[in-house]
Amino acid sequence: MSLSQLIEKCKNNNIKAQSELYTLFSGKLFALCLKYSRNYTEAEDNLQDAFLTIFKKIRQYENKGSFEGWLKRITVNTVLQQYRKEKVFEIAYDENIDDVDIDIDDDRISIDYLLQIIQELPDRYRLVFNLYVLDGYSHKDIADMLDINVGTSKSNLARARQILKQTIEVYLASQNLQSL
């Protein structure tokens, strides 16, 4: 069965087609949920919520553009909605924060470690960092998605980078001590 046929069957509430669509895309969408969620269990809950929304809104998909992109947008919005409800982003904008570059070309920093420390960032910093750095959204897009102003998005990104830089510096210093 082609993807377009599967989508049409899902639009008609065909449970078997919905199950097949879930099987087809749940892995990719779970990885996306995990990136924006606080932990594995929350990511599982967010994935389920995202699929409920997907099946509820699938009739709105008009076969224009990437279906996978449409799924990802709904999934990210579902996760971000949880944070908006919690009002995670109600902070003051700090104009005095400096943007920093992070040097991760060091062979001693694994991708797993880097992903771990990104996951450990406070919610508001992790979300903006992931949206901007990993997914390529603009600050305006992020501000619209999170219902914050552009300055807050920029400030949160700068703070995330500062935290990551400090964490990496401490990690590398400890690696140097261990090699002595």
From TrEMBL:
Protein name, per record: RNA polymerase sigma factor
Family: Belongs to the sigma-70 factor family. ECF subfamily.
Source organism of the structure: Aestuariibaculum marinum
Keyword tags: Sigma factor, Transcription, Transcription regulation
Pfam families in the record: Sigma70_r2, Sigma70_r4_2
Domain RNA polymerase sigma factor 70 region 4 type: 112-162
Signal peptide: none
CDD domains: Sigma70_r4 (cd06171)
One GO MF term: DNA binding
Matching NCBIfam families: sigma70-ECF
GO biological process: DNA-templated transcription initiation
Keyword field contains Protein biosynthesis: no
Start and end residues of each RNA polymerase sigma-70 region domain: 21-87
Domain of life according to the entry: Bacteria
UniProt keyword Transcription regulation, yes or no: yes
